[in-house]
Design a protein that fits this description.
This protein is of the alpha/beta class. It folds into two domains: about 90 residues, Translation factors (Elongation Factor Tu (Ef-tu), domain 3); about 120 residues, Rossmann fold. The strands form two sheets. It has a six-stranded antiparallel beta sheet with strand order 4-3-6-1-2-5. Strands 9-8-7-10-11 form a five-stranded parallel beta sheet, with helices on both faces. The relative contact order is 0.16.
Length: about 230
């Protein structure tokens, strides 16, 4: 079932703003007076309020704070503004909305993420303690394996394209071609658009039904293909 909650507008106070990995940032807000479903988005603005970008909520549905993970885009219109914000600042926020929610928390989940695309997966895990989840996370460097310390209760497969560390190397999609597929699993794909295209093609060729494929593109520009 898809969840679409009424979208609201609020001004939220930043509690924490810190760097994760090499070039990602975690924005932590006080919890607003509204609810969300794991996998949904909020919209943040830049210096010009008309500039809006969507960011997945990385917090669980019952967490006391609302977290957002983003990467600086130097020539972007929103993230350079976000980078200047600090604890105590307030920022207009709209949300929640979006359909990248769990269709059935009782169904096994295989989550394929690149980079900051892990954010909704963290929300799933923090919202559903008994979720049967397998995570494939592709990054360039091991330092960018965000939230890895929170993956104790999931089947966790990290992939690094620029270095090799404890077996965390290679391409996520190459592993996807040969990994055993769980019966009745749903597949959630989040991150670089190119990874999503390739993963969907691989899974379809391996017999996964289209109704069990769900995706949330994070960006469309060309990227280092070894991430996938």
């Amino acid at each position: 079932m898809d969840y679409v909650l009424p979208m609201t507008a609020d001004t939220l106070k930043i509690l924490e703003h810190r760097t994760l990995g090499l070039d990602a940032q975690l924005l932590r807000f006080e919890r607003p007076d509204w609810d969300w479903k794991a996998g949904q988005l909020i919209s943040l603005g830049g210096a010009d309020p008309q500039d809006q970008r969507d960011y997945s909520i990385a917090s669980g549905e019952n967490d006391e704070t609302l977290d957002v993970l983003y990467r600086l885009i130097p020539h972007g219109v929103v993230t350079p503004h976000l980078l200047k914000l600090k604890a105590g600042d307030q920022i207009p926020v709209q949300g929640p909305y979006g359909r990248f929610t769990l269709r059935n928390p009782e169904q096994p989940v295989v989550f394929c993420a690149t980079g900051t695309g892990i954010a909704p997966c963290r929300a799933y895990i923090r919202s559903h303690a008994r979720l049967n989840l397998t995570l494939l996370h592709g990054v360039r460097y091991a330092a960018d394996l965000y939230f890895k310390e929170e993956m104790e209760n999931v089947q966790y497969y990290p992939f690094c394209s620029k270095e090799e560390l404890n077996g965390a190397s290679g391409r996520l999609t190459e592993f996807l071609k040969q990994m055993p597929l769980m019966e009745n699993a749903a597949y959630y794909l989040c991150g670089a658009n190119e990874m999503i295209y390739e993963a969907e093609e691989i899974l379809t060729e391996r017999g996964v039904n289209a109704v069990d494929l769900h995706h949330e593109p994070y960006y469309y520009r060309a990227y280092d293909e070894t991430l996938s």
